[in-house]
Amino acid sequence: MSKTAFIPSVPARSESDFEVKAASKLAGYRRFFGLLSVVRKTDGRKLFPFDGAPELGPFPTKIEAIAAAQVYGEHIVAADLANPEL
């Protein structure tokens, strides 16, 4: 018998209900890509990255890649607050 359990989706109420992590990776000479992880803390649902998620970059600097990932993460949080993906 499987040990999986149903965990109901719980919509977030504020930005503090999300965990957003932004970083970067180097993929060749001056080719930085943003790395992003967005998790809804209320139910543990991973909103980003998902299958088919876009790559964030390339950017010429590490700072630009991290900033782009952070902005994209803020966009995902705002979109989930407006229209929760349940």
Provide a quick synopsis of the model:
With 86 residues, the protein is of the alpha+beta class. Helices cover 24% and strands 30% of the residues.
Question: Characteristics of this structure?
Answer:
single chain, 86 residues, alpha+beta, four-stranded antiparallel β-sheet, 1 helix, elongated
The best one-word shape is: elongated
Helix-strand sequence: EEEEH
Q: How many strand segments? A: 4
- The percent range for strand residues is 25-35%
Spans of at least 5 consecutive residues whose pLDDT stays below 50 are none
Average the pLDDT over all residues and give the rounded result: 92
What is the CA–CA distance across the termini? 26 Å
Kindly state the percentage of residues in helix. 10-25%
- Sheet with the most strands? 4 strands, antiparallel
User: How many separate domains?
Assistant: 1
Radius of gyration: 15 Å
Helix vs. strand class: alpha+beta
Summarize the structure in words.
The chain has 86 residues and is of the alpha+beta class. The protein has one domain. The protein is built from one helix and four strands. Strands 1, 2, 3 and 4 form a four-stranded antiparallel sheet that branches. Strand 1 and strand 2 form a beta hairpin. The longest helix has 21 residues, at 62-82. The chain is elongated. The protein starts with 17 loop residues before the first strand and ends with a helix. The model has no long low-confidence stretch (mean pLDDT 92).
